[in-house]
Design a protein that fits this description.
Elements lengths: L8 H26 L1 E3 L5 E3 L3 H8 L1 H31 L6 H14 L2 H12 L5 H9 L10 H29 L3 H9 L4 H12 L1 H16 L3 H7 L10 H11 L3 H27 L5
Antiparallel strand pairs: 1-2
Protein name: Sugar ABC transporter permease
Family: Belongs to the binding-protein-dependent transport system permease family.
Membrane topology: Multi-pass membrane protein
Amino acid sequence: MRTENQKAWLFVIPVLALVAFNALVPMMTVVNYSVQETFGNNQFFWEGLGWFEQILRSDRFQAALGRQFMFTAIILAIEVPLGIIVALSMPRKGFWVPVCLVLMALPMLIPWNVVGSMWNIFTLPKIGLLGYFLNDVLGINYDMTQQPISAWITVVVMDVWHWTSLVVLLCYAGLVSIPDAYYQAAKIDGASAWSVFRYIQLPKMKAVLTIAVLLRFMDSFNIYTEPFVLTGGGPGNSTTLLSIDLVKIALGQFDLGPAAAMSLIYFAITLLVSWVFYVLMTKDDQP
């Protein structure tokens, strides 16, 4: 009979304690602020669930949440299929494999604030290369500082450029793990490329696709730095996502109670939707 060595927990417990401390203390602080009102000087007044009710009924919160969901839906609809297509197009063997992997990883190595600054300079209508090319060369009326649609397109394209590589690398890892015997059997049976993808490649990529969808949902749903640096939430409030609005309330208006309540609601929505995604994508694997 195999015995388990429980002494390994002695090495894990300090790490778990440190992580729990770093997570629980800020969380309890936010919970404390969410049920109280403060006017400075550490004077707190009990508010109860009033801030939560106010936030949930707020037109501002609902509009920002709608923009956040729309942005995340667009990102997932573009990046997941595009990542699969690029991964399928990459070589499996030879000299170009490391070259392609390095090129795919490069965008993710750039810090988020640098990405926002790069795209801000790149897309400005007068001095930016892309802005100049679209306006003066192609004759397209493009100005992401004045036009909400142009701003939205710019934010989406920036995120697709920055994070599609993550989906590509995860899908590629799933593809290279498929044994050659599957492809040989499909070739003997005369299976088409679509049949190979549908019955061999896609099922074998399901686990990594689940991870990719969850990561991209959580990242895109909580995105802040890139769109804030790029557009600042403008023009107007057209690209003010929920994360940007939360920071404006907390640091701009210094309304700590409503900001804390909004952050907890934000956190709960993220957990709930992530759980729904996970259940839907793994329900066929459950006994």
